[in-house]
């Protein structure tokens, strides 16, 4: 098939590359010249396991073409995937300006019948608005082409995006006619072998499904984080509670780890967007609002434990931070808990030393010269007053605690992801703070 993917970020680049991997001819379009130039030279500006290799091999075999020329791409393909960002606007709603700009482009350059597929996460009704924009442009051009609107929300997870994309657990397709469902089945049958992994529905339902999935996952996390706050004060260990409830098949173990809050480019903005959709439609969103505020509280768990331990004047203190990305295996720092935690310590005068395996470049764009950037995890603890773990990268999971203890000024660890064995650390003489565990 001939496909154009518009927007070459985490979603567009990964899905475009995976479509090419299956033999389709794919144009990946972006408005950022530098990004496209880099990609043409096989330089991928985001970190995602396996992605570099696939970009290179698919460019070499000629199936993956990077361009800023959207007209050329549209004229030479039949399926247009919209995969541009839909960031949070100031009022919490979903900013659709990038999506609507692309709709204008499609209407301007379309020169044959085609499919317009929304992959970006968008509020209910957006695909139909896209259709109206395209139709208006065609009318202005005095042209008439048939185009089918499809909603095909993306469920890949940063950090495992390529494998999620190559082996999705489900493909949600919202469309209005059999022809659209069929073309999507033809495209995805190489990724999916079982027909029950397709979920067909109408366009509005598909748009809502994406928000529902993210809001449900965010709700699980916030529920556990709220519980963690109570555990902290009642001599309960949230880790034991998690095991106790996770074994219940109705609950399960996914997304019930207590921690210092969720971040990323999706959960925060999608929960907010859903709240906004509720408001517009005069429908209450009390649970979602609580999910949001609980998450904001969770991001302050670690700073509050630090203030309790050291007091609120941190001017003489240095904190070493392990992990900055919003989760392991990505360099993405959008809405990361590390930003809230570090900023609140900086506000109290603390010095901060950081290390992350992949997010250092993004961190430098955010914190500039306000903090010190280290080359490895042990440099971070050298002469620091305490270690803070924020992102549970594998290299932080089982470190040499002897070295850490010798390098730290005080043997204190604040663990935002409950990674370590409390009894072992206490035996070694560490003061070890976790989330949702009675401090000791
Ligand atoms: P991103 O910010 O990483 O990438 C968006 C890209 O679109 C940028 O490179 C930008 O330059 C480009 N762009 C903007 N306007 C353009 C235009 N007019 N023409 C061509 N390119 C343009 O965003 P992302 O994380 O890939 O997310 C894209 C969408 O997918 C969002 O709606 C997001 O909610 C959704 N989504 C993201 C994830 C994720 O894990 N990141 C997962 C599922 C769904």
What would you note in describing this structure?
The chain is an alpha/beta fold. It has two domains: 2-201, Rossmann fold, CATH 3.40.50.720; 224-440, NAD(P)-binding Rossmann-like Domain (Rossmann fold). The chain is 45% helix and 13% strand. It has 18 helices and 14 strands. The chain has helices spanning 10-21, 33-40, 51-60, 70-75, 97-109, 126-141, 161-166, 178-188, 203-234, 238-246, 267-280, 286-299, 301-310, 337-347, 360-367, 377-381, 401-407, 422-427, and strands at residues 2-6, 25-29, 64-67, 79-82, 114-118, 147-151, 171-174, 198-201, 318-322, 351-355, 372-373, 386-389, 412-415, 431-433. A six-stranded parallel beta sheet has the order 3-2-1-4-5-6, sandwiched between helices. Strands 11-10-9-12-13-14 form a six-stranded parallel beta sheet. Helix 5 links the parallel strand 4 (79-82) and strand 5 (114-118). It is elongated, with a radius of gyration of 24 Å. The model has no long low-confidence stretch (mean pLDDT 97).
Structural descriptors:
single chain; 440 residues; alpha/beta; Rossmann fold; 2 domains; six-stranded parallel β-sheet; 18 helices; 14 strands; 45% helix; elongated; binds nicotinamide-adenine-dinucleotide
Continuous helix count: 18
Q: What is the top-level CATH class of the largest domain?
A: Alpha Beta
β-strand percent reads 5-15%
Which cofactors or ions or other ligands sit in this model?
Answer: nicotinamide-adenine-dinucleotide
